[in-house]
Amino acid sequence: MVIAAIQTWHLHLEGCHSLKDKRSIVQSLKARLRRTLNCSVAETGDQDLWQRAAVSCAVVGSDRTSVEETLRAADRLVEEADGARIIETVVTWQ
C-alpha cells in the first residue's frame, strides 16, 4: 500500500526587505529539505509577497509510520531555518 502526504508551511520571513532576500531563505530551506530528507519540495504560495512564503513537501512511503517520521523531521528543519517563522502547518494525506 502506498501512503502519501503533503505538508505545507505558511511562513513569516521577518528579515526580508525584498524578493531577493526571500529567495535566499526559501531556496536554502528547499535545498536543505531535499538534501536531508530526499523529499519533493516547492514554494507553493505567496510568491509575490516578500515577507511571506508557503513551502510544501511531498513524502511517499509504504507505511504511515515512516511517512509521519519524515514529516516530523521536515517540521524540525523548517522550525530551525534562519529567518523563517512558522505561522501555520497543514498536512494532507492521500
Any overview of this molecule?
The chain has 94 residues and is of the alpha+beta class. The protein has one domain: Alpha-Beta Plaits (2-Layer Sandwich). It has 2 helices and 4 strands. Strands 2-3-1-4 form a 4-stranded antiparallel sheet, covered by helices on one side. It starts with a strand and ends with a strand. The model has no long low-confidence stretch (mean pLDDT 95).
Can you give me a brief rundown of this structure?
The protein is built from two helices and four strands. It has helices at 19-37, 64-80, and strands spanning 3-12, 40-45, 52-61, 85-93. The longest helix is centred in the N-terminal third of the chain and has 19 residues, at 19-37.
Question: Oligomerization state of this entry?
Answer: single chain
- Structural domain tally: 1
Beta-strand residue percentage: 35-45%
Element-level helix/strand string:
EHEEHE
Main beta-sheet strand count, sense and barrel state: 4 strands, antiparallel
CATH C-level class is: Alpha Beta
Summary tags:
four-stranded antiparallel β-sheet, alpha+beta, single chain
Give the helices and strands, then pairings.
Elements lengths: L2 E10 L6 H19 L2 E6 L6 E10 L2 H17 L4 E9 L1
Antiparallel strand pairs: 1-3, 1-4, 2-3
